[in-house]
What does this fold into?
Amino acid sequence: MTNGWFAGLDPDDDAAAVERIQAGRADAPADWPQRAVDAGFAADESTYYERLHEVTMAATRAAVQDRERADDQQLVHAVRAMVDCERTANELAERVAEWGGSRHGDGGSGVKYARSLAEGDADDEGDRALRSLSERTAALADEAASLRAYIERTAPAVAPNLSTLAGPVLAARLISLAGGLEQLAKKPSGTVQVLGAEDALFAHLKGSAPSPKHGVIFTHEYVRGTRREDRGSAARALAGKLSIAARVDHYSGDRRPELERELDERIERIRAREGDE
Amino acid sequence: MTLPEGVERHGFDGETSLATRGEPVYGERTDGEWRRWDPHRSKLGAMLENGMETGLDGGETVLYLGAAAGTTVSHVADFCGPTYAVEFAPRPVRELLDAAETRGNLFPLLKDARKPERYAHVVEPVDVVVQDVATRGQARVAALNERFLDDDGRLLAAVKARSEDVTADPDDVFDAVREELSAEYELLETTRLEPYHEDHLGVVARPRRD
It folds into this structure.
């Protein structure tokens, strides 16, 4: 194939030009500027280069977005796997504690106890079985930790502003709960506020419970660390900024350091109410 | 060695450095329209700083492989003609797009330098191929992209020893790369890029054609 990207294109058709830059191919280069002029695609070489600049910018910007958008799905898989590993490790740790208590008296609980048993001696078959289960439990907790490290490394590339405001793991959980960065960017901030609290929300909608004030964003220091009466306000303020951050990350990809400052000030004002009353 | 037209030694607060004229890109120091070209952050800058005969006069048509965030290619576009910037990683390309925004002669392409047929429909034959790809098989990338060079064109490559083999002695890696490059290219000059970049070899070469 020896055609340039512009062959047969309407010079004003942006979408088709972008498609050609992205997906076209040729075995060898040729004097494309001259050929474009000869073919009547551009009036002269400088017009050709102007057009080439426009379309390579547009095509590359779109291609970057596509590639990074695909990365958000990797993040979704990773954070779901992390949550599964954590939950399963905790469930198994309870089982280990119950079993261990029956053999050695009350020795403790949680993954930490399972780790101590995994490293301990086993004198008989029962101890060996318990130790083996403890090893699996500890290994699952290790897997959760290494997935968390992976998320902390990759989330800032997928959603830089959201990761700065929420922290990488909460950012990844929000993206996962929404189903992707694009879906998160399209949600109103009131929905972002209660993502992860769907059960409570539906109970409320059926008329049997108060409306939930926060979903998974409760893990953020700005909600958890605010006194109970003001948590609703803090959650609303945080969700508002997180929504904006998700939209900036999805639609433009710019860094907006001012978002963090605005959020800090807003939370400070909410927390200052305490002193006024 | 003479510097290409559009590149000069310029004083920045009493410190003289290579510089080009254009919009700043990476927070480099500026003086009027001159912007400092830091050889510690640019292998091509280090090649010029170390006095290699790059053959650059200014105004060339350039294919730049491994443009990353655009640090070096922005300087290249400041003093060269049409400049095609190929980079495969999406993250740095966002910054490359910012650098290209104010440079009408800089054409960013999110492409894999190991698959030249995916950009040969856009890139014209060039005077210079600049290569700074930190992947294995750097000599192979140079060979694959030889097709873009004019007969009297130049390859200006920075070969990173650690990208080929982290455990091997850099000298051995460079010997192997020189030999592999020699299949397609006549090597004109090879110089290590110390003190600016450790374990990097600067290469000036021209295609073998008869």
